[in-house]
Write a structure and sequence with these properties.
The complex is a heterodimer of chains A (116) and B (107). Helices cover 0% and strands 48% of the residues of chain A. Chain A has no helices and eleven strands. In chain B, a hairpin with a 6-residue loop joins β5 (33-38) and β6 (45-49). The chains are: A mainly beta (116), B mainly beta (107).
Chain lengths: 116, 107
Amino acid sequence: DTGVSQNPRHKITKRGQNVTFRCDPISEHNRLYWYRQTLGQGPEFLTYFQNEAQLEKSRLLSDRFSAERPKGSFSTLEIQRTEQGDSAMYLCASSLKTGKSYNEQFFGPGTRLTVL
Amino acid sequence: AQRVTQPEKLLSVFKGAPVELKCNYSYSGSPELFWYVQYSRQRLQLLLRHISRESIKGFTADLNKGETSFHLKKPFAQEEDSAMYYCAHGSARQLTFGSGTQLTVLP
């Protein structure tokens, strides 16, 4: 296991098109997170899954965004009708739920989206 | 709303000099604070967390509740410390990041 993986690493699309990103977490991790990072900013939280349940969604996640984690393993993030403002790096992270209040989130390399 | 502020976007120091990266937070409860680091062409990774009170790669960070700060310090900077540093507040459900400070350690 080489850590969290994300595909594709880069995506260029035209405004109005739909795009889908995939995240494969570290195999035993039951928590999965999506973040978005724009130039000059830190990552911004989008959504959080524990196993297959989506337990938290940011107000940043508009109706055009949908995330799934159907079997509690990999996750997909879909953006419908992309806009130029969606151009960003999309980061996935995973962690293992234990009895501690916080467990380290391990980040993937990100998918860079460019909307023309 | 939780907020994490890193006032310096860029910071340059000479090798061997002390370095301090500033972080302030706004949170009314008991904060859980972290420093994440991203080296060039690498993924974001945890550097240290306040609750563990440990020193990683010579870096320490002390939580000051009175000043709502969590500054990252190292007494003698090394060139390999050059990276992007993010302060974050978080829980099991999400992390709130600051905008980051790009540290450059000059030879």
